[in-house]
């Protein structure tokens, strides 16, 4: 999620903000491959400190990301430029 928001080419949130900080990109790349949880958390905290100072996005809401490996592909559908997730009803799936 952080790469979508803060790494150039990462996703729509970064495209909208035109945010580009090479230190943030480097730290997120390191965090992505870091196996040690404490080290990964420290890297992410460094990123959060930097982006809170840069403030490329104005936080006006909270975004939730839903993931589930036991949910079939036809239950969750991504709509409207991948910004929102619509949950289908059982009737929608049977239709």
Structural write-up:
- With about 100 residues, the chain is mainly alpha-helical.
- It has two domains: about 1-55; about 65-95, no CATH class.
- It contains five helices and two strands.
- It has helices at about 1-5, 10-15, 20-35, 35-55, 90-95; strands at about 75-80, 85.
- Helix 3 (about 20-35) packs antiparallel against helix 4.
- The radius of gyration is 16 Å and the shape is extended.
- The chain starts with a helix and ends with a helix.
- The mean pLDDT is about 80.
Tally of separate domains = 2
Q: What strand line-up does the widest sheet have?
A: 1-2
**Treating each run of at least 4 consecutive H or I residues as one helix, how many helices?**
5
Largest sheet: 2 strands, antiparallel
Give structural attributes:
5 helices; mainly alpha; 2 strands; single chain; 2 domains; two-stranded antiparallel ribbon; 48% helix; 95 residues
Task: Summarize it.
By secondary structure, this protein is mainly α. The chain contains 5 helices and 2 strands; from the N terminus they run H-H-H-H-E-E-H. Helices cover 48% and strands 8% of the residues.
